[in-house]
Amino acid sequence: MADNSSNNEYWSANIRIIRICLIIWAVCSFGFGILLRPLLAGIPVGGADLGFWFAQQGSILVFLALIFFYAWRVNKLDKQYGVEE
User: Fold this and answer.
1) Which residues contact 55 (CB under 8 A, 6 or more apart)?
2) Gap between the Cα atoms of 53 and 69, Å rounded
3) 20-75: per-residue pLDDT in tens?
4) Helix (H) or strand (E) segment spanning residue 44
5) pTM of the prediction?
6) Would you call 24 exposed, middle or buried from its count of C-beta atoms within 10 A (0-12, 13-18, 19+)?
7) Which terminus of the chain, N or C, has fewer Cβ atoms within 10 Å?
């Protein structure tokens, strides 16, 4: 990445991926686990309601999935811009 415009494009794409991941995580953890919990109370999942499940386990599982997604997507982005390891 010799020129500055390529550098800016790379970081712009990287920040966009980070924002998307953070929004998904916030919606799953704060939204489903706290704000929308009363709406999800009638949906049973493993002996508890869906809102409780998101607050206790769902947001963690979504976070783990987002970690793997981010690693996969940034590796692809690194190859696209020629900065892979």
Assistant:
1) 29, 32, 33, 34, 37
2) 22
3) 999 999 998 888 888 888 888 889 988 888 888 888 888 899 999 999 999 999 99
4) strand 44-45
5) 0.81
6) middle
7) C
